[in-house]
Structure formats: structure tokens, C-alpha cells
Amino acid sequence: MSDFSGIWIPLITPFVDGAVDHAALRALVRRYADAGVAGLVALGTTGEPATLDAAEQDAVLATILDAAQAAAAGKATGAAATGIAPRRPLPIVAGVSGNDTAAMRARIAELNRLPLAGLLIAAPYYTRPAQRGIVAHFEALADASAHPLVLYDIPQRTGVRLELDTVLTLAAHPRIVAIKDCAGSLDTTLALIRDGRLQVLAGNDLELFNTVCAGGSGAIAASAHWRPERFVALHRALVEGRLEEGRRQFHALVPQIQLAFAEPNPAPVKALLAAGGWVRNELRLPMTRVSDALAERLAALSEEVA
Which domains does the chain have, with CATH numbers? Predict the structure, then answer.
């Protein structure tokens, strides 16, 4: 069973001249493997999966998995020369979205063949089913999956919350093991942490500090695309009980986190990575580039000494 503690990055999908930029995607995977992040989420909201056709989604996932294996192989070669134990490939979680349970079960059957750490799944969007329908939906998907499931509670995108009783019911399923918590309810976050059956990951990046200090497992943080080592160090400081150091690191990251969500995600993250030379500043409609004013602030951030 996968461990979902630590800092996870929900990867962007780089584009060049309208097509997926697989070379840039590989470079990002290697960058984050070297930074020591816990894992990556492919085809999450930040990866713009709604604008990728089925073949593109499969290709993106294949590139990420291959790049993670290659990064581990490179580390193994270096480790062999130093006598240090090699690190396993970076765990990859795949996002699966939709509001048709049968179609999602079919997609999950395809993903069962891949060496994934898990699947990240939000509530059915737009249809806004009753909570009993949400429970039946997730249980059907978990039954069909060979991989652990991470619930994704993000009502501002789906139109429906995963109520606390619903999540606690789903926690009884052996393959539902974690939750990306974007509901913005401290009561719910604390209740899930105290229940202890699910690993609780902050999904709103500004809640990373509070969630981990309260006993949560970590975060799936889009803002960690930039300076990922600092997010990893923050998490390590908190879990090791170095609260003052962790507080100082978090406060230093707050301006970056705020800029990363000053306009709709993932446009600010892509602008920041583009300013650093990692990707082209391209998105697919209906997503658009950040405003010129925000672009200037992100460019200034990219030039700051880490």
C-alpha cells in the first residue's frame, strides 16, 4: 500500500506550439525527483487534463512514468559508485475525473495495468449527486481499482462537497486510503486527522502548515513547482518537531504561494516556470496566460536568490 505523506506536486502539462512538450515534461520529472519530493500527480487539475484527448493523456502518463524510472536509474548508477542504497522510482498518482461511474470504471481498468502509486478522484462534477450517490460512486471505483484511491474534495470545482459522514463511510473501504482536502473546513480536517484511517493531504497550499502541524500527512501543492526543495525542507522540519524553523520556512514561502494562486491555476505556475526557462508559457483554452502585471511579479520572484 502506498504512503502518501510528504510533498506531492500535481504536475503541469507543458505545451510547445500547441502540442504536449514531452521533453520539458521529462525535465520537470527529473527536477522534482532530484528535489526529494514524495511523489507526483499526473493529470490532476493543474495538468489541464480536460483539454487533453485520450491519446494525449495516455502519452503524458507514459512519459511521466518513464521519466521517473529513468531518474531512479540515474540515481542507482550514482549510488552504486558511492555505496549508497538507490532510491526507488518517484511514486506517480494519476488523476481520473468524470461524472459517469461506468466510464470511469472502464478507465480505471486500463490504468490497473500501470505501475501507479494510486488514483486521485474527485466527486462527480456538474451532476451534484446526493451523498449516498457519492458513496456508491466511490465504492464502485474502489472495487474496480487495483491501486489505492485518494479522495479529492474540491467543491468549488465539482459543485458538491464530500460531507464528513460520507468520507468516514468511505474510509472503511480497504483501497480508499487518503484525501486531498480542499474543502476549507478546519472542523472536517481535524475530524479526519483524529479519525486516523485516511492520510490527510492539504490541497489548499496555504493550509499546508496548519494541516501538517495538526497531524496531517503532507500536501499536494501546485505552488511547489518552484523551489520544491524549500517545501520538502518545510515538511521535514515540521514532522521532526522543529516548529520554529518550519514556521520561518513557511512564512518565507507564503508570498510565492499567494502569487501561484493570484489568477486561475495553472497559469501562474506556468508563467513562473517559463520565467525560469523550464517550459513555454502556453496553455490551452479556456485557460489563458496570466495578466502582464502578475507576469512581472512572477518574473521578479523567479530571479530571487533561493
Answer: 6-240 (3.20.20.70)
